[in-house]
């Protein structure tokens, strides 16, 4: 008699404290956000020399700016003199240089120390050595990806590899020409939930039938609870009577010219750990960037990107934006409802994943591999 070993229907999640504990979050900042490639800003937002943005990556503030020659540089947002945060705001344009508001040390757009009060009387100061400290950058899909690690991990494996793993081939994203699309809309969501809840929610579709009536109308297979991310290379088909990826299934915008026939009328979703979601449909691309700010607080910036002529001509993208904006609100509401329960004694050992969510266990294993040895601080 043979005994068949099968995977049980229910497998455990991470314990509740991993979503609330400050010590665990600190370890995630240190070992995940400050070590991996982190999608920071959209390159086109740095639209002229001196344009800059600041972003929080783990425990660090990073200043990202456009140089005079059109390049992009990223620095720790820390003055080399006595450590003042050079720029407190989130964005701006510097006329000629970055001058520290405390004692006026001044850096050019390449980060070199170019002036300081009495600098000429201190001839031994090496202006490069006391320049702003650079961090590694890569531009990909029209975004600036930053890595704070001294030795960055492979971008090809970690970032492009995530796309390959999902689509079956990294080339499958090329036809969408994401880097050359234009920003049609950006919405910033303040989510009172741990970043891992947001990732887990994005990875599964068991909740789709319950909370996403508009999305399941457009993508009927989502009503069955199997996410597009469950199968390699699979894109969810639009319903037969659906004309476009819009809130009411009406016609979308101009199709992205380079996509393949089999990518038409399909939706693909990709998770790029630790903080990025990419959504591909025939006429636009939606990119989510998460900024985890505390164990229970995450900012999500969501960009809707279209063929440039759509944006330039002022076409109405609202029905198209509204679909995923509602999905975002529905998802983030759900995450915010989970968050308080993460510290309930009933959830101390966590909950369970049903079979259509089993792939989330791989994400949990990955997190545990990074911070599983950390003793919770509370
Ligand atoms: S701290 Fe920046 S110039 Fe003194
Ligand atoms: Fe969802």
UniProtKB/TrEMBL annotation:
<dbReference type="Pfam" id="PF00848">
    <property type="entry name" value="Ring_hydroxyl_A"/>
</dbReference>
<dbReference type="InterPro" id="IPR017941">
    <property type="entry name" value="Rieske_2Fe-2S"/>
</dbReference>
<dbReference type="GO" id="GO:0051537">
    <property type="term" value="F:2 iron, 2 sulfur cluster binding"/>
</dbReference>
<keyword id="KW-0479">Metal-binding</keyword>
<dbReference type="Pfam" id="PF00355">
    <property type="entry name" value="Rieske"/>
</dbReference>
<dbReference type="GO" id="GO:0016705">
    <property type="term" value="F:oxidoreductase activity, acting on paired donors, with incorporation or reduction of molecular oxygen"/>
</dbReference>
<keyword id="KW-0223">Dioxygenase</keyword>
<dbReference type="GO" id="GO:0005506">
    <property type="term" value="F:iron ion binding"/>
</dbReference>
<dbReference type="InterPro" id="IPR001663">
    <property type="entry name" value="Rng_hydr_dOase-A"/>
</dbReference>
<protein>
    <submittedName>
        <fullName>Aromatic ring-hydroxylating dioxygenase subunit alpha</fullName>
    </submittedName>
</protein>
<feature type="domain" description="Rieske">
    <location>
        <begin position="37"/>
        <end position="146"/>
    </location>
</feature>
<keyword id="KW-0560">Oxidoreductase</keyword>
<keyword id="KW-0408">Iron</keyword>
<keyword id="KW-0411">Iron-sulfur</keyword>
<dbReference type="InterPro" id="IPR015879">
    <property type="entry name" value="Ring_hydroxy_dOase_asu_C_dom"/>
</dbReference>
<dbReference type="GO" id="GO:0051213">
    <property type="term" value="F:dioxygenase activity"/>
</dbReference>
<dbReference type="GO" id="GO:0004497">
    <property type="term" value="F:monooxygenase activity"/>
</dbReference>
<keyword id="KW-0001">2Fe-2S</keyword>
<dbReference type="InterPro" id="IPR036922">
    <property type="entry name" value="Rieske_2Fe-2S_sf"/>
</dbReference>
């Amino acid at each position: 008699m043979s005994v068949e070993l099968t995977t049980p229907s229910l497998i455990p999640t991470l314990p509740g404290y991993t979503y609330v504990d400050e010590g665990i979050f600190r370890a995630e900042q240190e070992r995940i956000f400050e070590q991996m490639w982190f999608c920071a800003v959209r390159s086109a937002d740095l639209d002229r020399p001196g344009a800059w943005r600041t972003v929080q990556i783990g425990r660090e503030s990073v200043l990202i700016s456009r140089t005079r020659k059109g390049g992009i540089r990223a620095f720790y947002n820390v003055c080399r003199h006595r450590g003042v945060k050079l720029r407190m705001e989130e964005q701006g344009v510097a006329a000629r240089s970055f001058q520290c508001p405390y004692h006026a040390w001044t850096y050019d757009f390449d980060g070199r120390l170019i002036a300081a009060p009495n600098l000429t009387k201190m001839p031994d100061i090496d202006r490069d050595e006391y320049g702003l400290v650079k961090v590694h950058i890569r531009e990909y899909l029209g975004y600036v990806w930053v890595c704070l690690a001294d030795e960055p991990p492979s971008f090809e494996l970690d970032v492009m590899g995530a796309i390959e793993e999902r689509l079956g081939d990294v080339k499958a994203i090329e036809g969408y020409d994401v880097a050359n699309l234009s920003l049609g809309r950006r919405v910033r969501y303040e989510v009172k939930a741990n970043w891992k809840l947001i990732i887990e929610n994005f990875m599964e579709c068991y909740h789709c039938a319950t909370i996403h009536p508009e999305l399941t109308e457009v993508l009927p297979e989502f009503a069955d609870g199997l996410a597009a991310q469950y199968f390699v290379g699979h894109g969810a088909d639009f319903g037969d009577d659906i004309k476009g990826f819009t809130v009411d299934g009406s016609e979308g915008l101009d199709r992205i010219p380079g996509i393949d026939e089999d990518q038409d009328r399909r939706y693909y979703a990709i998770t790029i750990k630790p903080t990025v979601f990419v959504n591909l449909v025939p006429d636009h691309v939606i990119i989510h960037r998460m900024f985890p700010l505390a164990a229970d607080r995450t900012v999500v910036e969501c960009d809707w990107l279209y063929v440039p002529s759509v944006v330039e001509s002022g076409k109405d993208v609202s029905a198209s934006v509204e679909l995923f904006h509602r999905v975002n609100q529905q998802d983030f509401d759900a995450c915010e409802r989970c968050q308080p329960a993460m510290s309930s004694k009933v959830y101390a050992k966590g909950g369970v994943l049903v079979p259509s969510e089993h792939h989330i266990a791989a994400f949990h294993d990955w997190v545990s591999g990074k911070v599983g040895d950390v003793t919770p601080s509370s």
